[in-house]
Design goal:
Structural class: alpha/beta
Number of helices: 16
CATH topology of the largest domain: Rossmann fold
Shape: globular
CATH class of the largest domain: Alpha Beta
Largest sheet: 4 strands, parallel
Number of domains: 2
Bound molecules: FE2/S2 (inorganic) cluster
Strand order of the largest sheet: 2-1-3-4
């Protein structure tokens, strides 16, 4: 209660008046905004368990003897991944950025939507702390009655948002929280606020070139790749990433040539390409000099931006003779982006939507029972179904 009262003191005048008019005993619990993401190891010591949890996730892959195989892969990959995290300061900044984003978003939301204030963000990571269970316990302690799940992946994939939702559904049932009014923002690839935030980052980078260099600039939108087995199952991710790219390019007036490329492939299986490393090498050999790489599917800095784009691929670019390699900044706590986050949640609260229409349609090649269970669970909240 003290926490709630303290939070009220920071709100805008209109919200304060709304809340002050309400007797203390009837002050409502916060509207929860649950930010979901895979997460990343915060320290080098977290790297092994992060990998182990990732490879144990049976919502994204089913392997024979999975616990043993996951253990083996995690052990084998930990040293090299630790080195990568070491080179970016000793851990992933994703928790730091998610907290900052959440705090800025909840303040703006209180102003935008006093009728659902106070708002409070919670964080549920899939493979590192704070896990879904931690978030649910905190929400339970706060007496939450209305919760919006807000994926921090603008473009939906069953490997990211889908897995988090399956985990959340199990957590809700295990914690007896079915009585909370749940709804989900499961994708937002073309939301105008997101597109504006992303476009601004690209424009700022392009502005660093001389007019002569800008004439020759190429924009490379680089997103995390997926194994072709996931793509061929019917995952919507490539189409949604492409739609984000299309919207950013339209806002830029379609003035620059561009490509959508894919990074972070691992292992011997075929992955969606072209691979970022190959593209950099090939364009370098073709004499291209000015490449702006845009992390279109990430909302904050982590290993894919700070290590892969800034170190690994930047080095490749230098070797290939690319003198004008630039990376658009991640959205992090950019005010345009945090405003977009608040607007997305506000619009969702007003819409009355439980999940997107697209979410109910499972991948044509889906064989995971958990995907069906989760969809049926959210359908039970949906008067439209
Ligand atoms: Fe896409 Fe199950 S894998 S719905």
């Amino acid at each position: 209660m003290l926490h709630t009262i303290l939070r009220q003191s920071t709100k805008c005048r209109s919200t304060f008046l709304t809340m002050a008019a309400r007797p203390m005993s009837t002050q409502r619990p916060p509207t929860a905004v649950l930010l979901t993401n895979m997460g990343g190891p915060e320290t080098l010591d977290d790297v092994h368990d992060f990998l182990l949890n990732l490879f144990t996730d049976r919502d994204i892959m089913k392997l024979p003897f999975q616990p043993a195989i996951a253990k083996w892969i995690a052990k084998r990959r930990t040293p090299s991944i630790r080195e990568q995290y070491d080179s970016i300061g000793g851990g992933s900044p994703i928790l730091k950025w998610t907290r900052k984003q959440g705090q800025a978003m909840e303040k703006l939301l209180d102003e935008l939507s006093p009728e659902t204030a106070p708002h409070k963000h919670y964080i549920a990571f899939r493979y590192v702390k704070p896990f879904t269970q931690h978030a649910l316990e905190e929400m339970k302690a706060d007496g939450v009655e209305r919760a919006v799940v807000f994926t921090q992946y603008p473009q939906y994939s069953c490997s990211t948002t889908g897995s988090s939702m399956n985990e959340l559904q199990r957590g809700i049932v295990a914690n007896g929280m079915e009585n909370v009014k749940w709804s989900v923002i499961d994708r937002w690839p073309t939301h105008p606020g997101f597109i504006e935030a992303m476009t601004t980052k690209v424009e700022r980078k392009l502005a660093e070139y001389t007019p002569e260099q800008r004439k020759d600039a190429i924009i490379l939108f680089s997103a995390h790749s997926l194994p072709m087995s996931v793509i061929n199952r019917g995952d919507t991710y490539p189409a949604e990433v492409a739609s984000s790219v299309d919207h950013v390019m339209k806002r830029l007036g379609n003035q620059y040539p561009y490509r959508l490329i894919w990074q972070s492939q691992v292992g011997p299986q075929p992955w969606l390409g072209p691979q970022t490393a190959d593209v950099v090498k090939n364009y370098g050999e073709a004499g291209k000099k000015n490449l702006v790489v845009v992390p279109i599917a990430f909302t904050s800095d982590h290993i894919e931006t700070l290590f892969e784009l800034d170190q690994e691929y930047a080095e490749e670019a230098e070797k290939a003779g690319i003198t004008g390699w630039k990376r658009a900044e991640a959205l992090n706590d950019d005010p345009i982006f945090t405003k977009a986050m608040a607007t997305i949640v506000h619009e969702h609260l007003q819409s009355g939507q439980v999940v997107s229409r697209q979410y109910y349609l499972r991948c044509p090649g889906c064989t995971f029972d958990s995907c069906g269970t989760t969809r049926n669970f959210f359908k039970s909240y949906d008067p439209q179904q």
